[in-house]
Design a protein that fits this description.
about 190 residues; Tetracycline Repressor, domain 2; mainly alpha
Amino acid sequence: MPKLTRATVIAEALDLLDEVGLDAVSTRALAKRLGVEQPSLYWHFRKKEDLLSAMAEAAMAPHATAPLPTPADDWREWFLENTRSFRRTLLMRRDGARLHAGTTPGTADLDRVADKMAFLTGSGLPEREAQIAMLAASRFTVGSVLEEQADPDPGAAPISHEAAFDAGLALVVDGLAHRVAPGRATR
C-alpha cells in the first residue's frame, strides 16, 4: 500500500464530500475509503476540525490562484469578477459554502487580501469602505451559495440563483461607487 500523505487524505476527503455531503463526512468513513485504520488519519490531522479546515483551503484553490488585479484594471469589473470567481469556486463542491463558512484565511490568503485591498484603495476607495465591501461581498456570496446549494428545486424560483446573485452584487458595487474619492471614479 502506498504511503498515506496529507494531500491524499485531503483529496479523498473532498471526493467523499462530493459523494455524501458534509453531514456524512467522518474520519471513520474517510479511513474506510482510504483502506486504513481511523487512527492513521491522526498522523495528518489531530482532529476533524483540522481536516475540515484543510479541505476548505484545498477547495478554495481555484479562487486562491486567480490572477490578482493590476493597476490598469477597472476596480468595478475586477470586484465583480473576483466575487463571481469566489461563488464559482464555492459551487464546485457539494456543500462548498458550508465547508467554507467560518474558516479563517491562511498566511497566503492574507497576502492576497492585502494585495486586493491595496488595489481598491489605490483605485480611490477609502480603506474602511474597501474592507467592509470585501467582507460584505464575501458574506453575501457564502449566504447566496448556502441558499443555492440547499434549494431542493432551483427551477421553481421566479429568478435564477445566478441572476439574483448578480443583481445583489451589482447593488453592492453601485453603492461602493459612491464612496470613491472624487476624481478617481473613472478607474
